[in-house]
Amino acid sequence: MFFVIYNIISLFLFLPVCIYHLYRSLSRGRPPAFGERFGFIPCEVLGKIKQRPVIWLHAVSVGESIAARPLLKALRARYPGHAILVSNTTETGRSIAAAFPEKDLCIYFPFDFLPAVRRALERIRPEVIIIMETEIWPNFTREASRRQIPVILANGRISDRSFNRYLRFSWFFSHALQLFSNLCMQTETDRQRIIAIGAPSERVLNGGNLKYDIPFRQVAEEEKTDLRRQYAIPADLTVICAGSTHPGEEELVLAAFRELLPERDDLFLVLVPRHPERANAVALLLERSGLMYRRRTALNGLSTRLFHGGEVLLVDTIGELMGLYALADMVFVGGSLVATGGHNLLEPASVGVPALFGPHMNNFCEIAALVLQYRAGLQVDDAVGLAQACRTIIADTALRSTLGQNGLRMMRENGGATERHLEIIAGYL
Hints:
Elements: H1 2-27, H2 34-37, H3 43-46, E1 54-58, H4 62-78, E2 83-88, H5 91-98, E3 105-108, H6 114-124, E4 128-132, H7 138-146, E5 151-156, H8 160-168, H9 170-177, E6 182-185, H10 188-197, E7 204-206, H11 221-230, E8 238-245, H12 250-260, E9 267-273, H13 279-289, E10 293-295, E11 312-314, H14 321-327, E12 330-333, H15 346-349, E13 355-357, H16 365-374, E14 377-379, H17 383-395, H18 397-413, H19 417-426
Parallel strand pairs: 1-2, 1-4, 2-3, 4-5, 5-6, 6-7, 8-9, 8-12, 9-11, 10-11, 12-13, 13-14
Helix pairs in contact: 4-5, 4-19, 6-7, 7-9, 11-14, 12-17
């Protein structure tokens, strides 16, 4: 009865969902890709995975795609005869996943309308479906179950902010959760929470966090210099990288940067908005601030004039964040000075760079606590605190090195989730 009611409601939501998606796509300059989202995948596209058993991994956006990378690499190594299909919901997630060499095909995830889901599953016919983190779609899960296709939740998490909401609507989510073959959660807390929402306890396990299995390394000074040269940044500047920033946050970062400039003439800021389509709005902020800046897309190789201290590189592209973290002396991880929930602190830690972050880390509270436990970064309250933390790290090179080394130690001591996930997946392949 639940699924009958759900699909009746879906009929009424069909037009609003399509209109919203069209508006969102066009406003961001992205194709709406309605064909794939309704399960119409051309035969010539499916030819890339024809005649092979298919592993379908779904990662909704950028963060989930990056978290899935260690698992994708392990799946490719262990199952070379299988085709790996990656689906995404967002355009930025699709852009990131499309660059992964481990995948054979990248598509948009179908809307959870019954005809779209049935058409996609019928055309792809996967041997197993792996859904990253916490994407729960009733029709998709039910139709996969009816076709006896195992569905595994990987790297699952229930944040503090979303737990009460999930609990309130557990009558809705429990129907789909009952159909998952296994649910691999990041922590014991996540395991207990998803059971409380309605997942069968015997199918839920603590698999660890795949994000800890991202490659980590100490970036050599020669490599750092080479990376800076690619962005026209002189090797002798002290570089602060503000990554994955959100509306209302760039103003705070720029305020902190401007506070530091009278004290040091060798400071340089790399500003990376979470959504590159916001680059025009951020450029207006930079113009009003009086700071000299250039966009990433305006750099044209070795002939580009080198930046000077006090200037800003505005990154209006995607897929370059890890390289920008590697060339920096310290990293501020955005989404944390505004109530967005934070972003992944493991990325700067994985290249041995100190991480700075604000108070709003509820989406990554476990990782934030671990960063503080290992002394791999500093948490600040506001723009004044951010300026003071940068000031401290700039003045104390020994502290900067210690924070970076602690981050690498944290990565080394908290891995192993990929192998635990593979053990579960192997039971269905």
